[in-house]
């Protein structure tokens, strides 16, 4: 009953394995390699800049706390999505996203354009307890981040590595990474205090500050320089 | 929590069972002992150490955030070592086999070993910052493209092909009949492994990925129905004429329901990959429901069946209680149905509410209203999950009792020729 041509193959482990390897390679090669060379998927959009040192640390806290499990950062090109969240996601936006944070599930809303949507103090209260802002929210409180001091010991190294991967950080930015991050953190803290929040010494240097700096950056680059060219590109 | 859950289920439970089942099946199909007992032991202990390391590091927030590839680079390196150990042991055994032909279960395990090696290495390329922090060498869209090539095929080659291997070995053994069609095995094996690798972009529909790649992903996902159903039919038709035994045999019950769920979720998946459906289902609980109908329905039930088959034989005894296995089957099936149904309703509700508009074109619901609307389904889901889990505890008790009453482990390998399963049509 067996097909005759296949029977010898079943006796040859090596040949069988080589053919299997070939069969699994084709699809990936065709789908993965060309996008690397296509216009529109690799060009940064004018105005899209790499994260500052503090925002980068905030992003790493976002990753560490698993925010991506519940919040997407990928807006699809439907009217109901752009009405709710803003400009749909463009290919050139992601050039400084390592790793990407599109997410796959929206237990909470999309965050890719959340920057500037709320004041810093909104985020400060919301991280302390989301239900102070929205009683029906199912997001856990992240108050502990405000009691955890921001660790800047790897910041300079992070910028160095990213620069070697092609992010356009200058020597001065890399050398001054820690000072820059502290200065920006002080700004965020000052803005919070101006807004009526009372911050302790530790809270001013806490991880929440970095996370707020990151969230306030999301989507801002595009808002400041609308992508006239890019929207005609690969994403329809 | 979510990465710990997914890693524990995929790499802890499923892959653990696959290692055991493939070691068990391979030695009998090749009529030779494993190539190296030392390698087998390294595989066992290092793998379990990795699972512990994974749980601890994820709880500490050490994650790359790439789904099913969250573990940081030192653990990735250790996984590579285990995989090489497993591959050497597997192919070494294969090379020394005393049975000329390789049975179809072995093909699926070969495909698993090769593909997972490829996927794991390319998706995990990253630049270390410190011991537990790294940045992906890919950025943005490319990272997403690689990730979902990995992510989708991890489903294909960790949760499908090795489980098909288990099905092809343990189902004919338990039922004592050959596989329905060897020709169907050939056709569906080659088409499945070829087509699977194209389907990744269906996770990125309506993303910035170029349209042609999205369309390829969608098209090949739809094509996947055929080889998947080839496997389902080959499994179910093997049971032809033996359905009366399903009434009394919990192992066959699990196989039958498992294979049926395989058929259902491999129909649902391609449908969800179609743009129109995906626009509704993406980002919702529907996806979670789909994954669980595959993971709980297909993967877990076939794994349970394999364990119920292997363990009494490994300890030279009979299963402590067939009745408890029956109880396990029914709790698992009931829990599964409750879980999956609640997630379907929940997901469709979310999707419809997100896109609902008023007559003037404005959005009908705020996001928080959609959160409140699905709360009740989350409770039902939790009940379903708890029922399913209670069955697992029943199994653990049953297995522990079985091992207790069995004699000490006797090395496998030198078995009488009659122990080789009947391979179809040869």
Task: Write up what this structure looks like.
The complex is a heterodimer of chains A (236) and B (426). With 236 residues, chain A is mostly helical. Chain A is 48% helix and 0% strand. Chain A has one domain: Orthogonal Bundle (Cytochrome Bc1 Complex, Chain D, domain 2). Chain A has 13 helices and no strands. In chain A, helix 6 packs across helix 12 and helix 10 packs across helix 12. Chain A starts with 6 loop residues before the first helix and ends in a 12-residue tail after the last helix. Chain B is mainly α and 426 residues long. Chain B has two domains: 158 residues, no CATH class; 197 residues, Cytochrome c oxidase-like, subunit I domain (Cytochrome C Oxidase, Chain A, Up-down Bundle). Helices cover 72% and strands 2% of the residues of chain B. Chain B contains 16 helices and two strands. Chain B has a two-stranded antiparallel sheet with strand order 1-2. In chain B, a hairpin with a 2-residue loop joins strand 1 and strand 2. In chain B, helix 14 runs antiparallel to helix 16. The N and C termini of chain B lie far apart (48 Å). The C terminus of chain B is likely disordered. At the A-B interface, helix 2, helix 3, helix 4, helix 5 and helix 8 of A face helix 3, helix 4, strand 1, strand 2 and helix 5 of B.
């Amino acid at each position: 009953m067996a097909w005759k041509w296949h029977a010898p193959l079943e006796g040859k482990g090596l040949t069988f394995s080589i053919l299997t390897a070939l069969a699994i390679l084709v699809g990936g090669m065709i789908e993965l390699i060309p996008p690397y060379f296509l216009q529109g998927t690799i060009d940064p959009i004018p105005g899209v800049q790499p994260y500052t040192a503090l925002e980068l640390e905030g992003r790493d806290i976002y990753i560490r706390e698993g925010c991506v499990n519940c919040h997407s950062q990928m807006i699809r090109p439907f009217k109901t999505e752009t009405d709710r969240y803003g400009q749909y996601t463009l290919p050139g936006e992601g050039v400084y996203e390592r790793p990407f944070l599109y997410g796959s599930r929206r237990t909470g809303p999309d965050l890719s354009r959340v920057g500037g949507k709320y004041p810093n103090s909104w985020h400060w209260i919301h991280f302390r307890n989301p239900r102070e802002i929205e009683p029906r929210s199912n997001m856990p409180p992240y108050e502990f981040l405000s009691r955890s001091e921001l660790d800047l010991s790897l910041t300079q190294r992070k910028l160095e590595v990213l620069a070697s991967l092609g992010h356009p950080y200058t020597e001065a930015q890399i050398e001054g990474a820690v000072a820059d991050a502290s200065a920006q953190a002080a700004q965020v803290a000052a803005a919070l205090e101006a807004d009526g929040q009372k911050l302790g010494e530790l809270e001013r240097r806490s991880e929440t500050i970095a996370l707020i700096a990151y969230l306030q950056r999301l989507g801002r680059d595009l808002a400041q320089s609308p992508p006239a060219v890019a929207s005609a590109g690969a994403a329809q | 929590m979510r990465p710990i859950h997914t890693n524990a289920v995929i790499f802890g439970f499923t892959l653990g069972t696959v290692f055991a089942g493939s070691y068990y099946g391979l030695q009998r199909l090749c009529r030779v002992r494993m190539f190296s007992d030392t390698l087998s032991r390294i595989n066992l202990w290092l793998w379990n150490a990795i699972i512990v390391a994974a749980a601890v590091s994820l709880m500490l927030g050490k994650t790359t955030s790439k789904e099913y590839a969250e573990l940081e680079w030192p653990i990735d390196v250790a996984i590579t070592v285990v995989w090489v150990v497993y591959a050497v042991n597997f192919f070494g055994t294969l090379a020394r086999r005393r049975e000329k032909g390789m049975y179809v279960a072995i093909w699926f395990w070969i495909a698993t070993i090769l593909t997972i090696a490829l996927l794991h290495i390319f998706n995990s390329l990253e630049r270390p910052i410190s011991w537990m922090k790294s940045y992906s060498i890919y950025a943005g869209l490319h990272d997403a493209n690689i990730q979902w090539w990995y992510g989708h095929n991890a489903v294909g080659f960790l949760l499908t092909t090795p489980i098909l291997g288990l099905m092809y070995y343990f189902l004919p053994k338990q039922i004592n009949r050959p596989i329905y069609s060897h020709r169907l095995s050939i056709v569906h094996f080659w088409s499945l492994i070829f087509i699977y690798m194209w389907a990744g972009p269906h996770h990125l529909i309506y993303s910035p990925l170029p349209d042609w790649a999205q369309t390829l992903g969608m098209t090949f996902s739809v094509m996947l129905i055929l080889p998947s159903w080839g496997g389902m039919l080959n499994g179910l038709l093997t049971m032809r004429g033996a359905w009366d035994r399903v009434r009394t045999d919990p192992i066959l019950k699990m196989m039958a329901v498992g294979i049926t769920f395989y058929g259902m979720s491999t129909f649902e998946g391609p449908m969800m990959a179609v743009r129109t459906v995906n626009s509704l289902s993406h980002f919702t609980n529907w996806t979670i429901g789909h994954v669980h109908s595959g993971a709980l329905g297909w993967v877990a039930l076939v794994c349970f069946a394999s364990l119920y088959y292997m363990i009494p034989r490994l300890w030279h005894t009979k299963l402590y209680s067939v009745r408890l296995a029956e109880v396990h089957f029914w709790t698992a099936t009931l829990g599964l149905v409750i879980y999956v149904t609640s997630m379907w309703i929940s997901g469709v509700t979310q999707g419809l509410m997100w896109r609902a508009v008023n007559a003037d074109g404005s959005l009908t619901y705020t996001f928080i209203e959609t959160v409140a609307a699905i709360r009740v389904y989350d409770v039902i889901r939790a009940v379903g999950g708890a029922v399913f889990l209670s069955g697992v505890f029943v199994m653990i008790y049953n297995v522990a009792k079985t091992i207790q009453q069995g004699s000490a482990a006797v090395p496998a390998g030198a078995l009488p020729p009659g122990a080789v399963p009947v391979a179809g049509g040869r």
